[in-house]
């Protein structure tokens, strides 16, 4: 399961790029897995929809020199939370995830994602999205997220 912050608002765990290709875009710094595998970025577009993006680097490639399927799925999970962030209003976890690989991406490609919350209930949210490189669709996904109560870290159990 994956956890993520609940809003796009300025928070201590949000970094906003001030220069370069992603100037004005934000990323969450709390999730070390995503930080190590990204950087992945999000912002609200002029149309009010959340967009996510990243530039494919050598570290994202598989043995065939194409974007690794696990990177597609990690970015899709990041995108689930960015797309749903305004609806969440609390921490959440991914409880189900489905995806379809449509085409390959390669080093240097700009991968962008858009999506929508298709339903938001009391504790569950349903989200779908599509990744593309320019006009080429690459990957579609849908996921179910569950709102959870924030838990504070606990000490390690005694040995």
Structure description:
The chain is of the alpha+beta class and 159 residues long. It has a single domain, classed as Thiol Ester Dehydrase, Chain A (Roll). 16% of the residues lie in helices and 38% in strands. It contains two helices and nine strands. It has a seven-stranded antiparallel β-sheet, with helices on one face. Strands 2-3 form a two-stranded antiparallel sheet. A hairpin with a 2-residue loop joins β8 (124-133) and β9 (136-147). It is globular. Residues 1-9 have low confidence and may be disordered.
CATH topology tier name: Thiol Ester Dehydrase, Chain A
How are strands sequenced across the largest beta sheet? 1-6-9-8-7-5-4
List the domain count as a whole number: 1
The major β-sheet equals: 7 strands, antiparallel
Based on CA atoms alone, the radius of gyration comes out at 16 Å
The percentage helix is: 10-25%
Number of helices: 2
CATH superfamily: Hotdog Thioesterase
Look at the structure and give the mean pLDDT: 87
- Label the CATH architecture: Roll
Q: Specify the structural class.
A: alpha+beta
Number of strands: 9
CATH class: Alpha Beta
Give the DSSP E fraction (strand runs of 2 or more residues): 35-45%
- For the record, give the distance between the C-alpha atoms at the N and C termini, rounded to a whole number: 26 Å
Poorly predicted residue ranges: 1-9
What sort of overall outline do the alpha carbons produce when their principal axes are compared? globular
Question: What sequence of helices (H) and strands (E) makes up the elements?
Answer: EEEHEEHEEEE
